[in-house]
Amino acid sequence: MTDEPEPGLELTSALVPLFVITNGRSLPPEHAYERTTLVSASQDASAEARTLSPEARQVLELVTGGFLSVAEVAAHTHLPLGIVRILLAQLEERGLIAARKPIPRAEHVDRDVLNAVLDGLRARFGA
Amino acid sequence: MTEDALVWFLVAVAVIAIAAVGILSRRNKAVAKRKAEIEAELNQQLSSADEQIATLSRELQQFKDEHAERIRQAEEAAEESTKAVLKGSARFLQSLAAEQQTLLEAIQRKYGGHSVLGDLLEVSHANAQMSRKAQGIAVVCGAPLGRRNRPASVYDVVRSAMGQIRNFERVAIMQQTGFALKASAVSPVALAVAELLDNAASFSQQNAPIEVTFQRVQKNLCIIIDDAGVGMSDEDRQQATALLSGDYRPRLSQLGNQPKWGFPVIALLAQQYGFRVDVTGVSRYGGVRAVVLLPEELWTMEETAPPTETVQTGHVSGPVPPSDSAPRTAHGLPRRGARQVPVASVPDRDTTTAASPEPEEAGQAARRSLGAFQRGTLSGRKLTVAPSEGADDA
C-alpha cells in the first residue's frame, strides 16, 4: 500500500481557506468599514493580541500606533477587502480597534469660476 | 424289587441327562462359532462403512473449502472492481473539487470588495466539504491523496481541517505553537483531523465546543481533539480501536447504506504516512478525546514567521511615495500618526508645475484621504514660492 506509482494530484489552493480566516462570519453592513474609513488600534490592544488568529493579529499590528485606511490594510495584508472588513468588525467588537468614518469629500472648486466671480465682484464694487 | 426298579430308573435318568448335556453343549458350541463368524463379518462391514464415511467427509470438506475460496475470490474480485470504479470516480471528483477550490479563491480575490463575497465564502465552504468526501473515498479505494508542496504550521493544518467540516465555528484552537508539519504530512494529517473533527461535531450537541490543543510528548507531537459529546460505548470503542489499528479492515459493502468512511480513512492514512490515532480517551467534558500522534519524522519546529511575504511595500503604495522622515512600523510600513510631516505630493505640485491646472490631479487627490489633503494644503500655503496663488491673493 505504501508504494505509490501514481503521482498524486497537487493541491494549489490556499491551505487555510478564507472562510476559516473569518471564522464563518458574514460581511459587516455595506456602510461600515468603507475603503477610506480610518482604523487604529486601541491602547490596550496588544495584550489581547496573543489570542487572535495570525491574520487578525497582522491587521491589528498594522493599525497600531496610527491610523490606516481599510483599503491600505487590505493591500498590506494581501487579503480581499471584504475579508479585512470582517476581521475589522471582529476586532472592533472585542474593543481592540477604533474606526473613524471618512470625512465627506470636499468638492473641488474650479479656479476659473472663482476668478470669474472675483472679477465680477471687483467690477461691481470696485477693488 | 422296588429298589432295583428305582435304581434302574435313576440310571436311566442319568444316562438321558448326560446325553442331553452332550447334545446341548455341542449345539452351544456351534451357535457360539456362528456368532463369532457373524460378528467378524459385521465388524468388517462396519469398518469399511467408516472408511467410506471418512472419505466422503474429506471430499465434502474439500468441496466446502473450494466453495469458500471461490466465494472469497468472487468477493475480492467484486470488491476490487467496485474499488476500481469508485476510485476512478472519486479521483475525478477530487481533482474537480480541487480545481473548483482554486477557481473560487481567484473569484473571491477578484470580487473581494463586493458584497457577493459573502456568498462566495459559503460556496467555497460547501466545496471544501465535498472535496473531503471525495478524498476520503479515493483513499479507501487506494488512490493517492492530493499533496501539498510546502510545509505548514500545525495551527494552519488544523484550520485547513476545520474548513472541511460543516459547523467549524464550534472548533476552537486553544493555542498557537511553533510546530510545523513537513510538506508530505500536511494533507494526510489535515484530512485525518478533519474526519476526527467531523466525528466530534456529529456526536455532540449543536453548540457544544470542540477544543483542539497541541502537546509535545517526548519526540512526538500530539494534536488533541476534545469534544463534549455523548462519548462512546465500550463496544464502539473496541470497534474503533480495531479499525484504527488496522486489525479489521471492512469491505466497501460493510460500510452500510450511509457509509461511515471516517475511521477506515483515518486508519489507512495513519498506516500509509506513519502516524497514530487513538480515540479511546475521555475528554474533560466527558466526551471523546481523540489524539493524533505524529512521530518526529513528520514535524519540525517552525523556522520563520510564515507571513513574511506580505511585507513587500513596493506595489501597494499609491501615487504618494512615503517620505523618508515618516516613522515606520516594525514591518517597514509607513506609520500614519497624528501630526506628521506633510505628505510630499502637495508641495511637489506647487513647486514643479505651478501654473498648469493639471486635469488628472483631481483624480489623484480623490484617491487620498482627506487628512492628507488638508495637511498638504496647509503646507502649501506656507510655501513662499507660489506665484499663481500670490496673484489670486491680491
UniProtKB/TrEMBL annotation, chain A:
Name of the protein in its database record: DUF742 domain-containing protein
Organism: Streptomyces mexicanus
Pfam families: DUF742 (PF05331)
Lineage: Bacteria, Bacillati, Actinomycetota, Actinomycetes, Kitasatosporales
Transmembrane segments annotated in the record for this chain: none
From TrEMBL, chain B:
GO CC terms, sorted: plasma membrane
Membrane spanning residue stretches: 6-25
Catalytic activity: ATP + protein L-histidine = ADP + protein N-phospho-L-histidine
Domain Histidine kinase/HSP90-like ATPase: 189-296
Keyword ATP-binding annotated: yes
Any one biological process term the GO annotation gives: phosphorelay signal transduction system
GO molecular function terms listed in the Swiss-Prot or TrEMBL record: ATP binding; protein histidine kinase activity
Glycoprotein as UniProt keyword: no
Record EC number: 2.7.13.3
Coiled-coil residue windows: 39-84
Keywords: ATP-binding, Coiled coil, Kinase, Membrane, Nucleotide-binding, Phosphoprotein, Transferase, Transmembrane, Transmembrane helix
Pfam families xrefs: HATPase_c
InterPro entries attached to this UniProt entry: HATPase_C_sf, HATPase_dom, TCS_sensor_his_kinase
Region Disordered: start-end pairs: 305-394
EC class of the enzyme, as a word: transferase
Classification via Gene3D superfamilies: Histidine kinase-like ATPase, C-terminal domain
Protein name: histidine kinase
Organism this protein belongs to: Streptomyces mexicanus
